[in-house]
TrEMBL record:
Organism the protein comes from: Cottoperca gobio
The name this protein goes by in its record: Ectonucleotide pyrophosphatase/phosphodiesterase family member 7
First and last residue of the signal peptide: 1-19
Keyword Signal included in the entry's annotation: yes
Pfam families documented for this protein: Phosphodiest (PF01663)
Keyword Signal attached: yes
InterPro entries: Alkaline_phosphatase_core_sf (IPR017850), Phosphodiest/P_Trfase (IPR002591)
PANTHER family: ECTONUCLEOTIDE PYROPHOSPHATASE/PHOSPHODIESTERASE, ECTONUCLEOTIDE PYROPHOSPHATASE_PHOSPHODIESTERASE FAMILY MEMBER 7-LIKE PRECURSOR
Keywords annotated in UniProt: Signal
Gene: LOC115021514
Amino acid sequence: MKTMQQLLLLLTAASSAGGIPLSRAPPSNKLLLVSFDGFRWDYDQDVDTPHLDQLGRDGVKAKYITPPMLTMTSPSHFTTVSGRWVEDHEVVHNMMFDAKTNLKVSHRETLTRSEWWDNGVLPLWITAQNQGLKTGSFYFPGGAANYSGQAVNRVVVEDPKPPNETEWRQNIDTVMSWFSDEDFHLVTLYYGEPDRVGHAKGPDHQDRKTIIRQIDRTIGYLREAIARHQLNDSLNVIITSDHGMTTVKKRPQVEELVLNKYLNLLKLASFEILDYGGFGILTPRPGKEQEVFNALSKAPNLTVYKKNELPESFHLAKSERLPPIVVVADLGFNLNSRLIFYVNKGDHGFHNGEMDMKTIFRAFGPDFKKNFVSEPFDSIHIYPLMCKVLQIEPAPHNGSLAVTQNLLHSGGGQRAPRSVCLLLSLLSLLCTFTLL
Ligand SMILES: [Zn+2]
């Protein structure tokens, strides 16, 4: 018995020296990831946003961040939660499609279609769950799918309706109770604004500014709710988005694009997704690839690529799902196929180097620095940062913690790995049991 007491003392001394509490694995801090869809990087600069401004003082603000190519909701969100380029995770459009069967499924319907999302890349929810954490997804794109047969612990599927500030607050209350009453570690929360108003009215419209004020009040409410649930010391929050927004160029200011003027789509293509903003895809009929490429090369205000010649910086060329021809319109141009029936006043999907496609990143909580302005970075580096905050081993990814680690204060995310803590806790329990 004496030997066991000595062992326990030794373990206590050893763990204290390493700064690791012996009795129980220290719980990692919790993480809330919030996405406001289509929040362009500068949307807070022409509107009074006291709560976002306060976040800047209480946490971290990046000047802007760059989404992956392509700058579309599902592909970009899945890069954020997986740290993988679009060519690797293969969520290559908002619409699920099959070029062989001509199947096209709307974005909303894809949300519960695992076959669109689950291509061998594990998103953060599943990786965290596999390491003992409890996770939830509220409306977040990709959260309602199964990955290798595994579902996210708690899922609320998006139910698109007009933006209702009361409901936005209720959603926050729900998520806060997951953290405080049910001990969730990671929750992702999604809002469909300001994307919706950006499309409908354009990024410069007064209604966009009204929604930004609503978002700002919602962030104020979030901070109150965190305090009310006594989560100030344990909950880290990242607020980000998936892409920006630009004004769609219309007649008579510009000549709008109609691709059928340059090639007979019916004759030359067996599959297409056009009329969907600035990003288009086509499958040429057998033997017609060069003809399609040549014809589109003559069209103004767009760039046509053969898939295998896509610039490396797009990280799209390896995709098996993308058809052989990819078209990227110049900023603000819609890729109309045959007729101009496109009604959006604003859109995204353009080159991620365009400033109008850049988006926001804010973070605050116990692990983040205060009053810190970060240089711009690519959204792919959010994933390893989230793993660091949650103290989990990341799945293979294309991000780099070296890019985002400076957002954490010294000691932020520096606790001993979960596995070491668990081992010490087990040893401690064993000693206690033997002494009894
Ligand atoms: Zn979006």
